[in-house]
Design brief:
heterodimer, A: about 400 residues, mainly alpha, Serine Threonine Protein Phosphatase 5, Tetratricopeptide repeat, 4 domains, 19 helices, about 65% helix, B: about 375 residues, six-stranded mixed sheet, 11 helices, 11 strands
Amino acid sequence: MTSFNKTPRGRFSRFLGPVFSLPALRGRTFWLIAIFAPFQIQAAPDAIITEFRDDEILTKLPNTATEIFRETDSPKEAGDRLQMLITQARASGDPRYLGYAQTLINRWPDEQLTERLRVLRATLRQSLHQFDSARADLEQVLSSSSDNQQRIQARLTLANLELVQGRYTEAGRNCQALQSDYPGLIAKSCLASVQARTADPQKAYRNLAQQLAEATGRQPADSTSRLWTEGTLGDIAAQAGLPEAELHWRRVLQASPSDLYIRAQLADWHLEQDQFERVLTLTLGFEAVDTLAVIRAIAMKRSGHPGSDELIGRLRQRFEEARWRGTLLHARDVARFLLDVENQPHDALRLAIENWESQREPLDTRLSLRAALASGDRAQHQRVSEWLSQQGQIDARYPEFKQ
Amino acid sequence: MRITIRIWLALTTIALMSASGMAAAHKASDSFLYLNSGPTELRMDVALRDLALLVSIDSNGDNEISGQELRQARPEITRTIESALTFSNSSGNCGLAGKTWGISEHSDGVYSAARYAIRCPDDEPPEALEYDLLFGQDALHRGLVSLDYNGQTRLAVLGPDSRTLDLADKDTPSYFSVFKTFVYEGVIHLLIGLDHILFLLVLIIPATLSTHKDLTHGVQSKALRGRLLELTGIVTAFTVAHSITLALAALDIVSLPIAWVETVIALSIGLAALNVAWPVLGHKTWKLAFGFGLVHGFGFASVLGDLTSGVSDLAVALAGFNLGVELGQLALLVVGFPVLYYLGKNRIYQEGAVPVMLAGIGAISLFWVVQRAPLF
């Protein structure tokens, strides 16, 4: 359970057909679609390829064991499978696993859910950005469960959910509760994150770094808590504008290279400092993951890399298909792509704000501010700035905003 | 016990943080259904990876699908796909006749692709589609449908809770309803957009002011005709100009930074007001109307852009919006001009109210300029 699954990589490398061929629509429809480019969907497909060799490898299949689809009455077995699928989704950035997980949990009626299954369902819902229903599940576990392990799990999940949504009072309350139920580095990281985003990131950083040093000095802290704390230290250092951010994130990545969140944070950090080579190294082989692919595309574009057009074309197609589907889970990535690659600040702002309504992590906030500036939308800029002032949040990554 | 708690904890925590940024990377499972010619033709693309959940394609079990393995699995693949689709009309269920089969590529890899002719018992096109593929494996699977009606495309999404699709043409959002909506939006935007109204007001003020000659000679009817002509010229110039730039911007041919556009619009009001008192920009008001009308068009376009995301008939929307703006403008003139014209005969209006109004409008304009200039 501790090991991360290997990310299926390079799935695009085999068929490098026309990257973004113009739709084969005729006459007026074509022009209407072509003219209104930003989000027009390329509804006409490429031609069917009937000639392919027998020895050609068309697709690599992930190790999806067939037993995950078998029905089971055992909550433990269902829980194990669910947990595995969610982990796999995270490590690979592949939402199909979330779909399998959803199928699995759909078979369990609400009244038959065990505490563990409910916490897992909340985790899944959170991954699908169904924040309110995730919160409801967690609150139910916290108010009724006597299972301490599940209560701790629910508490931590809820604290993080509140943090991601920028509800710092609620996050702080849950971190406090976590500190009394499960004292240790994870609870301290939780509290430090809230402190950093509502008060002084420098101070939060110093405190947490000291706590980590003390904990390690007393007895070797278990590696998950330590890595978790390192990741948090990286985030807070970046917020405070401290160069140590890179060091902390690198430590986490060294131990778990499939931590896509940390990889994206680090890649973003290098991108901000125009260290394009480093961005390209970090994102190499992760083109299938939207966040990393968008950062890579920006680095390629800014450094005049010859492969940029190809990657940008692929991302364009990917986001068009997502648009057709109608659910944009990755609104932040699309918004950033529109802002930094496509140079469409208005559409970028629309999506960035849509995303910001539910997610208010520093990078979400930065994107909203940048898109508002680029499109000259004073009202939105002011709205985000006012929220930052209310929270008392200062971040070195968006100096445009002055308190 | 302790250790298991910790591991599971960290899993969720790290994952949770990632969730905000990473959740929907890669791509969820989609199949693509392209229907056209009636619809009597279907092209259906399903990801090989998804098919492998339903059909044992990877016969040698090496987690790779080769061209040969795919060819061998073709009968089972087509059977699976065909049994997941039910086309029907009043005469009963329709059959699928395979025409082309092969592969295609989408953003997340290789798909099995096939083209079919849809044959219903009465040789008429099908009226409904029922879709049931992969929902038992992947609750987030969707069938993305593109329906082509004589060059107009309608998109639809099939999911576990919406497995049937009405294929009849009738509920395609009509040009007319799009047009109507945008006429309304155009009117509303003009009427609530104070800057356009003020600009228009300043433009028409000169036409309402009686000249000394008019008063002494009392040749009202002639003066009125002259002023109406002047007014028509001004309004037409403004309309033509903003229509041009509205179209250019809406069609993405020209794009200007909106903050500067808004600033220049604010400035245009003040300059127009100034021009009434001191004709620094010349006596030909219609030229002024035309010049600044160009800038106002970009302002309208930014509003239109906000409204048209997801609208496929952009040209219809553009025409409707423009007409709406003109109607709003016309309504304003029909109400406003007679009032101003009547007041124009009054000396207090001429010598008192007009300068005060102009100064007020000028001040508002300068205030807006300062507020909007993107220098923050």
